[in-house]
């Protein structure tokens, strides 16, 4: 196993051990392609979403938020093209066991890049290279497999009640385009942003949170006049770069990949994939940025009969074109954990810690009494804890084990600072330290004495 594969394994194991990510339905043997966020995972995930919303919605005048239903009228997906071949993956089956595989993944495992290939090109390559299933058996010809999850509403039988779980949050935005324009009177260009669940019946979910069947997206549909698209695309590109910096991803670990024409999604005229250098996997997609033209609004106008137009000051209504930055939260969370995972030596012992940015860490700070069996220390520590909790919200109370063990535990979950209330705080040993606490820094291990009255502002600065 390479160091990098080893690193990913350590991260997945830490994530389970410390309550970030658990396998879905674990006590029943799991359910492939599903993962549950534990107490710390949900905190990190929520911080990512909040920061994204602050940057892309609250921090701007040209963005409007939305929270559309996951279940939508099935006609939405016919109009968007998702029920057709455009939203399919190539599927092959093991002729002996019936197990299903993604043909392009099997080819990739054999060193062949299958992006953009037709089914017959895939079949020809499988024959030519004599590619077998992982069990060594022959494979069927490749066929298209649609990734949408189907369900039925109410008690209706047959196709009438058929619905799909949305495979992208984007369509909820398109179908509400007119509602937002009518209610908010936005000035062009403007965007509508949404965070929510999406579902894809992936043939081969794999690589932890990377390819799953249920995941969250943070998406923006940014509406522009056709002749504005290139200039606005360039501006949003900068905003996406700034976002990746804001969540602590190093430039050297991000690559921008211009998707070739023959591999563009069915709706896209230009797409740049932001790829992250995942340990043990290498560069692969983190987020996408597509120019969707007027594909979606035009199709929804035709299919629904509702005008999807914007009326500018000159009074001639038109169908806007769309730029779409689309972020998968699970992949962002994975990248953030990979970037933060650090091993070093502190004092005599080696340790691992998560060097998370303070605005993403599950806990902003942890508070402890030096000894938990000394009521005066506990009482003072509870006072400090309550004060910091009012200020930051996400503050941990940690009185398990000795102080050294608490530091290691908080290091492992990425808490930037630990505050310890000791006998000096009570003024018992050195009166000049009365009402000061020890603040210990996660990355350097340095300790400082800080007055309780200045603690919150100190923590905001460091
Ligand atoms: N609305 C456009 C759209 O959905 P996409 O490239 O199919 O585009 C956008 O998906 C992002 O959603 C991806 O960059 C990725 O971060 C995330 N994503 C897509 N499929 C995923 C899956 N099966 N598991 C985890 N994340 C996924």
Q: Main sheet, how many strands, which sense, barrel?
A: 7 strands, mixed
What is the number of helices?
Answer: 13
Domain module count: 3
Beta-strand portion reads 25-35%
In one word, what is the shape? Answer: globular
C-alpha end-to-end distance: 38 Å
Q: Helices and strands: which structural class?
A: alpha+beta
Number of strands: 22
| Ligand set | glycyl-adenosine-5'-phosphate
Q: Give me the CATH fold name of the largest domain.
A: BirA Bifunctional Protein, domain 2
Oligomer: single chain
Structure description:
This protein has helices at residues 3-17, 39-58, 75-80, 103-109, 119-128, 170-175, 177-184, 229-246, 295-304, 329-340, 375-392, 403-412, 455-461, and strands spanning 21-23, 35-37, 63-66, 71-72, 88-93, 100-102, 143-146, 150-152, 162-165, 190-199, 214-224, 254-258, 270-278, 282-293, 321-328, 341-346, 349-354, 365-369, 395-397, 417-421, 436-441, 447-451. By secondary structure, it is an alpha+beta fold. Helix content is 32%, strand content 27%. The protein folds into 3 domains: 3-70 and 173-337, Bira Bifunctional Protein, Domain 2 (BirA Bifunctional Protein, domain 2, 2-Layer Sandwich), CATH 3.30.930.10; 84-147, Herpes Virus-1, CATH 3.30.40; 363-461, Rossmann fold (3-Layer(aba) Sandwich), CATH 3.40.50. The chain is globular and about 80 Å long. The strands form 6 sheets. A 7-stranded mixed sheet has the order 3-10-11-15-14-13-12. Bound molecules: glycyl-adenosine-5'-phosphate. Glycyl-adenosine-5'-phosphate is lined by residues 168, 170, 200, 202, 211-212, 215, 217, 219, 285, 287-288, 324, 326, 328, 330-331.
């Amino acid at each position: 196993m390479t160091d990098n594969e080893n690193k990913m394994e350590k991260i997945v194991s830490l994530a389970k051990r410390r309550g970030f990510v658990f396998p879905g339905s674990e006590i029943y043997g799991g359910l492939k392609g599903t993962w549950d966020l534990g107490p710390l995972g949900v905190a990190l995930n929520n911080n990512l979403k909040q920061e994204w919303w602050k940057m892309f919605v609250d921090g701007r005048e040209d963005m409007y938020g939305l929270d559309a239903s996951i279940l939508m009228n099935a006609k939405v997906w016919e109009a968007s093209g998702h029920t057709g071949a455009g939203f399919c993956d190539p599927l092959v089956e093991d002729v002996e066991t019936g197990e299903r595989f993604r043909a392009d993944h099997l080819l990739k495992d054999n060193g062949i890049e299958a992006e953009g290939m037709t089914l017959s090109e895939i079949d020809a390559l499988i024959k030519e290279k004599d590619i077998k299933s992982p069990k060594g058996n022959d494979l069927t010809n490749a066929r298209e497999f649609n990734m949408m999850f189907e369900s039925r509403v109410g008690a209706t039988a047959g196709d009438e009640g058929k619905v799909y779980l949305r495979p992208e949050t984007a369509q909820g935005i398109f179908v509400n385009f007119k509602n937002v324009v009518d209610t908010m009177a936005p000035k062009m260009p403007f965007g509508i942003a949404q965070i929510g669940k999406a579902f894809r019946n992936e043939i081969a979910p794999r690589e932890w949170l990377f390819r799953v069947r249920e995941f969250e997206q943070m998406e923006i549909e940014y509406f522009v006049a056709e002749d504005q698209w290139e200039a606005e695309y360039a501006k949003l590109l900068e905003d996406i770069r700034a976002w990746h910096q804001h969540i602590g991803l190093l430039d050297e670990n991000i690559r921008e990949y211009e998707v070739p024409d023959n591999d563009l999604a069915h709706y896209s005229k230009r797409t740049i994939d932001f790829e992250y250098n995942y340990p043990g996997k290498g560069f692969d997609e983190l987020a996408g940025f597509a120019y969707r033209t007027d594909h979606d609004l035009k199709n929804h106008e035709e299919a629904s009969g509702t005008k999807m137009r914007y009326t500018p000051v000159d009074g001639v209504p038109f169908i806007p074109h769309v730029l779409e930055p689309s972020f998968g939260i699970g992949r962002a969370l994975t990248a953030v954990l990979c970037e933060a995972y650090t091993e070093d030596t502190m004092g005599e012992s080696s340790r691992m810690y998560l060097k998370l940015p303070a605005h993403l860490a599950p806990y902003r700070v942890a508070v402890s009494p030096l000894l938990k069996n000394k009521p005066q220390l506990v009482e003072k520590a509870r006072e400090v804890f309550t004060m910091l909790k009012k200020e930051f919200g996400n503050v941990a109370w940690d009185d398990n084990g000795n102080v050294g063990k608490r530091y290691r535990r908080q290091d492992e979950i990425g808490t930037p600072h630990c505050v310890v209330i000791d006998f000096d705080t009570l003024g018992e040993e050195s009166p000049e330290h009365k009402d000061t606490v020890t603040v210990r820094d996660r990355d350097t291990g340095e300790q400082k004495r800080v007055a309780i009255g200045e603690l919150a502002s100190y923590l905001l600065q460091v």
